[in-house]
């Protein structure tokens, strides 16, 4: 469990980092917190010949609120979601999700952006990004671009990030006024990747319609999936069995994989349970309270 | 007695907690080279190996294949030969031409660093000419199955029957017979510290020095001497701090011989440290057994007999003979009266990692199957599980209790002492059994499902043949204890110092316990099977008593008093009632050693205060226990929450309850892993799917509840201090208890558990099956 030989570079600016990326391309791997990359290197499942460590690039360790939302730099640790009250207030969904990600030690190093770039289909932060409609700012010498979460996550461990691109930040919309959020999951042990995780938003428009309410699920296949309530029951307001019906619909729609830890059928059952429960909790957190 | 029984804080802990523990990987010697092992990637194949590219890599010093090893170092020794196992097969040190399991060592690379050695390992070309393999235990004994060893007529390596009474007659009278197929899956010991070996040739003494993590350094010394063709006095085995043993460090592995062989050949220090991946795929596993058993009972649930057979998965080789299945076969009756018993242990070769004892060693399986059968009886005959057990327990006035068959150690299996009804009574009181039953009924009406599980167990501990202890009082009055049973972190330095401090009336701090060095005593067996405390501890007590007698003899002469008038207090021999007539142990040592150049002053005693003692137990002593648990199961998510866990243990007289509490708590952690998490999974082709801690799950601190521990004490008559071993009791009953509790919680759904470990997903599937059964029944 020792990595194959590699060269190491620690650029001091985004420009320098992009230079290195354009020079080494596929041979290079960016390293943020290293919490997913290092195990892959040690098991020799990844053998990049150059490691570009972004931990010395100034600026990437900041987050800020702008008119459009929250921008989180590539070096912001998952731990900030636990510790930084101001950040927690801006993204209540992620603030709730972070407790399920690994352990204090892994969260202290692992970054928010790095988790999303790694694109494990059971990662909590991918579920959050998909549910909230995150966007990613990608930079390279061939030009900068902004990619939506739906376009970003392509498959298990695969994103739209090109080989010469750096993800500089993730952008998250500000909380919807009056909405309620919830995040829950079931994993084998505390801190393990979820067998199923569910993020929920419950929001009503002026007419009390729940159309923009939605759920996103992780651990159910090659990537997280989002389901909008309005697509299932357009114009619905508070109907007693609505959440249960929707949960059943979601569970029947998904095609979760089986693995060592959970069967397809069990994952479906968890999905139904967590979606319904999660929507109930989120609804209770809306401005108008539970239905 | 002073310190015996006292919750003495461990002398070891300051160092260990502060990061000052010193482990085999901390050893650094000038010019030391590092080894990496190339392991088989397929389950069964003829192999051809090309090491040219690896050897050519700069920084690589040597590459070893089977052909490069001396003939004496090609097969690992059989540690427990047993005539029933007619075709034992020891693992090859390096595979010669054929591999039989994924992970089998093939090539050893020696390089400047472990990094380089692993780079070179990547360059070794192994050509696999694949052959059919058999992984599944049940398929391995079907006619036409591929043979693991073509020169062994069948994969069924042995059938060992354990019999007493007449089961046919008993079953003919039965009111009810419970039948089950009960399966326990493969797990492994996961010490914090993996294995490791450092070896070098000591030029000053012309002998091989081997540092390793052994539980049995004397066994390793013999094996290494044989492999190297050296006299035993030219091999020294040393153990630094060791981070856990769990039984699997009590065996001899490839690297234990290979590293000294390489060190001898290359003439420089060699280090090999196992990484976690190697550990998961290549260190010995345990526990896979499939049982087909029947229990015959009367209308009142009184056991008439148990019969059946079970399959034991030996893996590809038999490094420890049939010890584990034998332990299961003799432990199934446990604390219950089973007058008629006939169980066959079938030992089966498969193309998997060899199996050997892991903490519990066959006993968790035994406890599980017996308790599961009893729970089935209780369920069918509608007898409360606690009451059912009460009716079958061996009674306190029946000790010594003979089971009617031969034990693992060849003696008539006889329980030395115990009080099972007291254990059960205490356990039930601690969980407030009756109140819990009422609560259960009430909660069910609210849609909440709690369940109660209980089990009792026995453990054969403190087995022979002997342990030797050397003890000296030094010139400054401090006491040195030398012994052969090394520590894997159990706290021997503390516990044995407590015994000495009491016996010699010296401060605890004045006693130093040395171990982990084959130069310290002449002979030793090792630390395993919960034996060091009992056997070495007894030898410590005997040695201390001998020194005390000697102190009285020499001190009596010095004080001109009769030995009978003397007492040993505060490190001094004193005349009773005349404290001023006193001589310190230190003075006794000084006086009896005499002056340099002059004749010894007290010729009749010989020089100094030093002794050697052995303890040779007549047979095992039996530790016993009762665990009870209350769990809540959420039938929607199938998650299990342990609400209360109670362990009542009878380890006889306990030297240090603090240490023993720790053994119970840690044991419970493994037991919880064995129930819910720890599972080595092979695919059909023999690849291990659980090669990292991401997939091989262990119970963490989040999964192990606070355990309430209490002790019942029935001292063992088999050793001077009345002790019983405490190393495995925490683990053994856990899968039985938690399975019973989960089944009890889900009783309204009709789920039956006959399989450990089980996950939430398994429970979900079983709930579904139960529902289907119920619908079909309607
Ligand atoms: C014991 C343990 C338990 C864990 N449990 C969980 C869990 O329950 N849930 C969970 O979601 N995760 C879990 N993880 C994974 C953890 O969250 C990782 O931190 C995270 O997946 C990766 O973030 P990182 O900053 O460490 O990225 P790294 O490991 O450094 O990188 C991961 C990948 O992303 C790429 N990358 C990183 N940053 C960028 C960037 N700015 N631009 C482009 N590419 C980039 C890297 O090249 C690499 O391919 C666990 C990890 C461990 C070790």
Give the topology, please.
The complex is a heterodimer of chains A (291) and B (778).
Chain A: E1 7-9, H1 14-24, E2 28-31, H2 37-42, E3 50-53, E4 63-65, E5 69-73, H3 80-83, H4 85-90, H5 92-97, H6 104-109, H7 112-118, H8 124-132, E6 135-139, E7 145-148, H9 149-152, E8 153-155, E9 158-159, E10 166-173, E11 180-187, E12 194-202, E13 214-218, E14 225-228, H10 229-232, H11 242-253, H12 264-284
Parallel strand pairs in A: 1-3, 2-3
Antiparallel strand pairs in A: 4-5, 5-10, 6-7, 6-10, 8-9, 11-12, 12-13, 13-14
Helix pairs in contact in A: 11-12
Chain B: H1 13-17, E1 33-39, E2 45-50, H2 52-56, E3 60-64, E4 98-99, E5 105-111, H3 114-123, E6 125-130, H4 137-140, E7 156-164, H5 167-172, E8 176-184, E9 187-188, E10 196-202, E11 207-212, H6 217-228, E12 235-238, H7 254-266, E13 270-273, H8 276-282, E14 285-286, E15 289-297, E16 303-315, H9 323-331, E17 340-349, H10 363-381, H11 385-392, E18 401-406, E19 412-415, H12 420-430, H13 433-445, E20 449-461, E21 467-473, E22 479-483, H14 492-504, E23 511-514, H15 532-559, E24 566-569, E25 572-575, E26 578-584, H16 585-593, E27 610-615, E28 621-633, E29 640-650, H17 657-677, E30 707-711, H18 734-745, E31 755-756, H19 760-777
Parallel strand pairs in B: 1-13, 8-31, 11-12, 16-17, 22-23, 29-30
Antiparallel strand pairs in B: 1-5, 2-4, 2-6, 3-5, 7-17, 8-15, 9-14, 10-11, 10-13, 15-16, 18-19, 20-28, 21-22, 21-27, 24-25, 25-26, 28-29
Helix pairs in contact in B: 6-7, 9-10, 10-18, 14-15, 17-18
The structure holds flavin-adenine dinucleotide.
